[in-house]
Specification:
Helix content of chain A: 25-40%
Number of helices of chain B: 19
Shape of chain B: globular
Number of strands of chain B: 11
Number of domains of chain A: 5
Strand order of the largest sheet of chain A: 14-13-26-25-24-15-16
CATH class of the largest domain in chain B: Alpha Beta
CATH superfamily of the largest domain in chain B: NADH-ubiquinone oxidoreductase 51kDa subunit
Distance between the termini of chain A: 53 Å
Number of domains of chain B: 3
Order of helices and strands of chain B: HHHHEHHEHEEHEHHHEEEEHEHEHHHHHH
Largest interface: A-B, 39 and 35 residues
Helix content of chain B: 40-55%
CATH topology of the largest domain in chain B: Rossmann fold
Strand order of the largest sheet of chain B: 3-4-2-1-5
CATH class of the largest domain in chain A: Alpha Beta
Radius of gyration of chain A: 29 Å
CATH architecture of the largest domain in chain B: 3-Layer(aba) Sandwich
Oligomer: heterodimer
Largest sheet of chain A: 7 strands, mixed
Strand content of chain B: 5-15%
Radius of gyration of chain B: 23 Å
Distance between the termini of chain B: 61 Å
Chain lengths: 909, 434
């Protein structure tokens, strides 16, 4: 946390002396010694509101009973929580709260886990003195996902306060006065918000419940499994509650996991994906050109025989493998072992290649770690947070919550470099909390980073120690930056030098600074360079080795980090160690009792290229979907069609699986055990909640079965046994503890980087990008003027940068199968700045055509204030058409395919 | 009839007095401001007010100078003064007259208070229904600004005092000082948990003083004629100065009467307000606005000062004296007041929110001849359970009419209950108690 106070206060609660930190609330102090004071409105995440009056206690030398939720402890305080007076007070307040409660417990989904029920049981007589008429609210439709029963509401306002204080969404508000106060949202339409489910989780009674499982259960009937959410890299703890083999609901208890019980829409409402009726029930085998159901024996034998034949004919490097990061560490580990030992090739790659690898490679290069040197706690405790190219509230909502907490609760200074502009909307927008926001074109985030570094080196803010330690390094960077005049920088970023200087000063002044870099950088051209430059920024300001400081690349998929550490990527062995690291190879060979293949690996784009050229004959695809993920320009389909064997391990018949020769049904995370490693490098246990759907099996088990058939058995009894093997190889997998021990940067690597490592590309990295192309950063007035001047051009359409990206309601490869999420968003629409929409004369729902050299598409428009002028955003989960317009470029160093944006012309239909 | 020198109503009762700046200046307006600005140290102004014994005229009667003294001493950031013009207490209408008839008097008071506490910004939170008052104040503010009494560099002394008018939107609770601050900040007007108090965490979490219109209007005279003079009026040492009592109800001449504190109810009602409107004798008095407990004819000789009224079991409150004649149903009177409190309970605290709805429904039932004797015990019980268990004083206020009518006129309740229609009562079978 931000400050760890050592000051303590001694007090007496119910005759027992206790010592607690100064500032602790009486209710908390009591809880710490095991005394539960009844309450409704109090919640540790929220500021005290003291409205329910339930937690009254007697404090000696205070005239009246005090609310323990709003009274901080004081030295020598004597508190009584169970005197006759206090008990009477609890009883009377509860009598008031119950007066207007409908007592419809038999049909209430909260029945059995309801605070009001429990306290009533403890404090009130079985009969009521209330003979009057209870208030009745007319039933109102609230939303497709959230149900309100305002008659049950105890008006504690926890939901409203959570929505504001924690989520920063402010979708809910009390409306009306007195007993007729009800919780409402601000529009006449149904609720439109982030659907984080926080209000459902925090409601102490059954006033706000989920509609996904309305009336389907009684809480005590449910079986629970604590596991990890798979929708992004945050790695949130979730409790899956099931009845039989049906998923009933998902929640997360306060204090649980890295998310502290907070969830986002995907975590809370997205759980139905795994039980979607389209799940593959049995293996499919291509017979006479068609995929038909087959038995496991037939399918596996076909794969094994074909593999053996192909390997004899073309050698092991005619094989390649792709694996998705939705798989557990155990799956990933067995996959790479299978490919390396059974097949004999290093030609494997996975979804970390889409961007996460850029961050990892930068970390390894500069400071010798592959994980963050910070944890979520450091984000909350940071004095300055620099967010670069991350729409964090949508891509990594829970990491976003940590940022919100740091800013809102602990007054951290937030610096943001993002395309989105601050705007109040139905979902939160981190730019709204920013002290220094730089809104720039999505391909020019790096320019602002250069601006910040220029401000550091030219403003005399470089750390003294570094200047002495590595004068050549500092000089090289200064010199390159001197070549870029401020005027040029200002024109390509739209930010003034003063603004950059102020932001740089704020960054330097902070004792604890965390830099978060997201997909906006990692998945766009130059991503590797920008990530390296951000590490330069930390080095130059002397922060890289300070506790609580560091660079944190945000993982997109839930186990991107695990895929790196399991060595399921072209350039890594488990560890990760470099493929040509002799010591690591020897260690592995010793453990595996088998020599590792010598030849180099191949990345996603190389594999596709080789397949297209006919050099790759057989491809194993585990959960990956290159056809569905890459734009048409990548020609993935053409590549896969040339294969002689395409094996897909999948949950659903994806675009890629449709081309397969064999499709093997795999278990989802809800049906298997294992571990995931989240974005901060925390290894967490995955536990099965339901039995496998149909005949599906865990991915590692399928590979293990194949290995037996192919004569190189890699056998394990269960996932735990694999983890045991992983533990022997990879540090950090020993204990699945409550918080990760963050690695320190390797000073030898830093030293090497400062001495010579930086030099190889310092000139290239410190160049402006995107100069001269369409300028989004120009002021709105001048662009409006130029538009008026070029009225003819506007009639033909407007030039925009189309960015295909993730939205809050969809991520990973399964979210479009989740009925809850589809209720919120079931189609793509183009997000346009209202001014741009006005220029082409369209409003919400109007259809437009997007055209460029590569193709065209039509779609409907949604006006979004947070989208800057000159940009159009489209959700990648509905981008089948949009992918036609996108082009691909490949990073020369990390081989990341950049394919998320394109220049397009937009015209009204 | 004894006559007393008026202070606050003096100007407006002069023939032809319009309340415009010229009129106010003619009678010596803004001289007090000239006298203090830059000439008397702010701390000395506060000391002067403390010495005068001036107490808040809004209801609670807190010593004004002491309140100002609670502001942090070595704090250099922004501070605020809020003038509470959200006069909504039933039976109270003094601020309205002070605003409408002599706006500059209170503006001068605000300016003096700002100077004393070091606030550069003051907000007047005026009740939404006072649309005439708001128009008059806006005009007066424009005049004062043009004349250099308000704005930057007031009277070229280098002191900045800006005054802004904010109209409420019709919630009684916004007269509670912390709810007023919430409302002023643009939020839902709900009382805040105290501590922290507004003196340290007020408007926008900055040190803030909230004073009533009448309180502030007294300041120019304290400055002009000295605190000793003010302290000699009324019933010193605790209740100094005059009060504008709002007399209403079954009397001959309802209206505002400014008299020194310490005269008796008998004098106020029978001499100043002309006595009862008809031959019926006096039955009940609400001594200080709807939140104050009822008095009976036995209390007619109680003195109208803070201590005496409190000692007699009620409070001087906002100065709204409502008189009721013999023949008034006190159960009905209690219900009428309870209806008001039920309507205005903000709903924040469970006891007040649920209690007001419960009390009002039970009273209605009794009036409608559906009462039961046990109800009286329940009413008393509920009131006891509301008292002292809410964030603000509203909870304590709403039970006053019920408890005091039950205390003095319990027989009227019992009579109504005895008259309960048998069929009605029979329907209400009470389940067995445990």
């Amino acid at each position: 946390m931000a400050t760890t106070t050592t000051e303590t206060v001694r007090l007496t609660i119910d005759g027992v002396p206790v010592t607690v930190p100064k500032g602790t609330l009486v209710i908390e102090a009591a809880r710490q010694m095991g005394v539960m004071i009844p309450h409704f409105c109090y919640h540790p995440k929220l500021k005290p509101d003291a409205n329910c009056r339930m937690c009254l206690v007697e404090i000696e030398r205070m005239p009246k009973l005090q609310t323990s939720c709003s009274t901080p402890v004081a030295e020598g305080m004597v508190v009584h929580t169970a005197t006759t007076v206090v008990n009477e007070a609890h009883k009377s307040v509860l009598e008031f709260i119950l007066a207007n409660h409908p007592l419809d417990c038999p049909v209430c989904d909260q029945g059995g886990r309801c605070d009001l029920q429990d306290f009533s049981h403890e404090y009130t007589p079985t009969t009521s003195r209330f003979l009057e008429v209870k208030r009745v609210f007319p039933k109102e439709y609230f939303s497709a996902l959230i149900e309100t029963q305002m008659n049950r509401c105890v008006q504690c306002l926890r939901c409203v306060r959570y929505c504001d204080e924690v989520m920063d969404v402010k979708a809910l508000a009390p409306s009306g006065r007195g007993t007729m106060t009800e919780i409402k949202h601000f529009t006449t339409h149904q609720l439109d918000c982030e659907f984080c489910g926080g209000c459902v989780q925090i409601c102490p009674v059954g006033a706000i419940t989920s509609r996904l499982d309305l009336y389907e259960f009684r809480p005590w009937m449910l079986k629970r499994a604590d596991t990890v959410c798979t929708y992004c890299g945050d790695g949130c703890h979730i409790t899956i509650q099931t009845k039989g083999n049906d998923l009933i609901e998902v929640n997360s208890a306060h204090g649980a996991g890295r998310n502290n019980g907070d969830l986002c829409a995907r975590g809370f409402f997205g759980y139905h994906a795994t039980t979607h009726p389209d799940r593959l029930q049995s293996p499919l085998l291509r017979r006479n050109g068609e995929l038909v159901p087959a038995t496991w024996e037939e399918a596996l034998e076909f794969v094994a025989e074909t593999c053996i034949a192909l390997k004899l004919k073309h050698g092991p490097d005619a094989f390649a493998g792709l694996i998705a990061s939705r798989c557990t560490n155990e799956d990933l580990y067995v996959f790479q072992k299978f490919m390396r030992l059974v097949i004999g090739t290093n030609r494997i790659d996975g979804s970390a290649r889409y961007g996460h690898i850029n961050g990892v490679r930068a970390l390894r290069r500069v400071q010798g770690t592959h994980r963050w040197t910070v944890a979520f706690e450091d984000i909350v405790g940071a004095e300055v947070l620099l967010l670069v190219g991350t729409n964090i509230t949508e891509t990594n909502p829970i990491t976003g919550l940590k940022v919100k907490e740091a800013v809102k609760k602990y007054n951290a200074t937030l610096l943001t470099i993002e395309a989105l502009v601050p705007a109040i909307g139905t979902i939160s927008n981190i730019a709204n909390l920013s002290a220094h926001h730089f809104s720039v074109h999505p391909e020019r985030f790096g320019n602002v980073v250069l601006g910040l570094i220029k401000a550091v080196v030219e403003g005399g803010l470089v750390a003294q120690t570094l200047t002495q330690r590595a004068p050549a390094y500092v000089e090289a960077i200064s010199q390159t930056l001197r070549a870029i005049p401020w005027e040029t920088l200002e024109s390509v970023t739209g930010a003034t030098s003063q603004a950059l200087m102020e932001a740089a000063r704020a960054f330097v002044a902070a004792r604890r600074a965390v830099v978060l870099v997201g997909q906006g950088v990692l998945r766009t051209p130059g991503g590797f360079g920008v990530a390296t430059n951000l590490l330069d920024l930390l080095l130059l300001t002397g922060k890289h080795d300070r506790p609580g400081c560091g660079l944190a690349p945000l993982a997109e998929e839930n186990n991107d980090q695990g895929a790196v550490e399991m060595g399921a990527l072209a350039e890594f062995l488990p560890g990760p160690s470099d493929l040509d690291d002799r010591a690591a190879r020897e260690r592995l060979a010793g453990l595996w009792k088998e020599e590792l293949p010598q030849r180099p690996g191949a990345t996603l784009m190389q594999i596709l290229g080789d397949a297209r050229a006919g050099n790759v004959k057989a491809l194993f695809v585990v959960g990956e979907n290159p056809i569905g993920s890459l734009p048409r320009a990548a020609q993935a389909k053409e590549a896969l069609e040339r294969l002689e064997l395409l094996v897909c391990q999948e949950l659903f018949l994806t675009d890629t699986a449709r081309l397969a020769h064999v499709v093997l049904p795999a278990c989802s995370y809800a049906e298997k055990d294992g571990t995931f490693t989240n974005t901060e490098g925390h290894v967490q246990a995955v536990r099965h909640a339901i039995d496998p759907i149909g005949e599906s099996r865990p991915d590692w088990e399928i590979l293990s079965a194949l290995s037996v058939l192919m004569g190189y058995p890699i056998e394990y009894g269960d996932a735990k046994e694999i983890l045991k093997e992983i533990r022997n190889l990879i540090p950090g997998y020993g204990l699945l503890g409550p918080a990760p021990a963050t690695p320190r940067s390797d000073e030898a690597v830093v030293e090497r980087y400062l001495r010579e490592g930086y030099a190889e590309d310092v000139g290239a990295r410190y160049q402006l990008t995107g100069a001269g192309s369409f300028d989004m950063a120009q002021p709105a007035t001048s662009s409006a003027e130029s538009d008026r001047r070029d009225a003819g051009k506007v009639k033909d359409g407007l030039q925009l940068t189309l960015v295909v990206g993730q939205t809050l309601f969809h991520s990973g490869k399964l979210s479009t199968r989740a009925k809850g999420l589809m209720e919120v968003q079931n189609a793509g629409s183009l997000g346009l700045n209202p001014s741009d929409a006005d220029r082409i004369g369209v409003t919400d729902g109007d259809r437009v055509r997007l055209v460029n050299q590569a193709g065209e598409m039509t779609t409907s428009v949604r006006r979004l204030d947070r989208v800057p002028e000159g940009m159009a955003v489209f959700p990648e989960h509905f981008d089948e058409e949009a992918r036609r317009l996108l082009t691909v470029s490949v990073d020369p160093v990390t081989q990341v395919p950049y394919c998320k944006s394109a220049k397009v012309r937009i015209e009204r239909l | 009839m004894p006559t007393y020198e008026k202070i606050l109503l003096k100007n407006m009762e002069m023939p032809g007095y319009t309340g415009l700046l010229a009129d106010y200046e003619r009678v010596g307006g803004y001289q007090a401001l000239r006298k203090v600005l830059g000439k008397i140290a702010p701390a000395d102004v506060t000391a002067m007010v403390t010495k005068s014994g001036l107490r808040g005229r809004g209801g609670a009667g807190f010593p004004t100078g002491v309140k100002w003294g609670f502001l942090p001493k070595d704090y250099t950031g922004p501070k605020y003064l809020c003038c509470n013009a959200d006069e909504s207490e039933p039976g109270t209408f003094k601020d309205r007259q002070l605003i409408e008839r002599d706006p500059h008097q209170m503006l001068e008071g605000i300016a003096i208070a700002c100077y004393a506490i070091g606030a550069e910004t003051a907000y007047i939170y005026i009740r939404g229904e006072f649309s005439l008052g708001a128009r008059i104040l806006e005009r007066a503010l424009a005049e004062a600004r043009a004349a250099g009494y308000v704005g930057t560099n007031v009277l070229r002394t280098g002191v900045n005092i800006d005054i802004w008018l904010h109209r409420g939107a019709g919630a009684y609770i916004c007269g509670e000082e912390t709810a007023l601050l919430e409302s002023l900040e643009g939020k839902r007007g709900l009382p805040r948990v105290k501590p922290p108090f507004p003196a340290t965490h007020g408007l926008y979490s900055k040190p803030t003083v909230v004073n009533n219109v009448e309180t502030l209007a007294n300041l120019p005279y304290i400055v002009n004629r000295g605190p000793e003079w003010f302290a000699s009026i009324g019933s010193p040492p605790k209740s100094t100065g005059t009060r504008v009592f709002c007399v209403s109800g079954h009397i001959k001449r309802p209206g505002n009467y400014e008299v020194p504190m310490g005269i008796t109810f008998r004098e106020l009602i029978f001499e100043h307000a002309g006595g009862m409107r008809s031959q019926k004798p006096l039955k009940a008095i609400i001594p200080g606005g709807a939140s104050a407990a009822f008095f009976t004819p036995q209390h007619l000789d109680v003195k109208l000062d803070f201590e005496s009224v409190a000692q007699a079991g009620s409070m001087l409150g906002s100065g709204g004296v409502t008189v009721m004649e013999e023949g008034t149903s006190m159960v009905w009177a209690a219900l009428r007041l309870m209806e008001f409190f039920y309507h205005e309970s903000c709903g924040k605290c469970s006891p007040c929110r649920e209690g007001s709805s419960w009390l009002v429904q039970t009273l209605r039932r009794i009036i409608n001849r559906r009462g039961r004797m046990e109800d009286l015990e329940t009413l008393t019980d509920l009131c006891k359970n509301i008292a002292g268990r809410t964030v603000c004083a509203f909870g304590d206020a709403e039970i006053a009419p019920v408890l005091s009518t039950l205390q003095y006129w319990r027989d009227e309740y019992e009579e109504l209950i005895r008259a309960a229609e048998p069929s009605g009562a029979a329907e209400l079978v009470m389940p067995a108690r445990h």
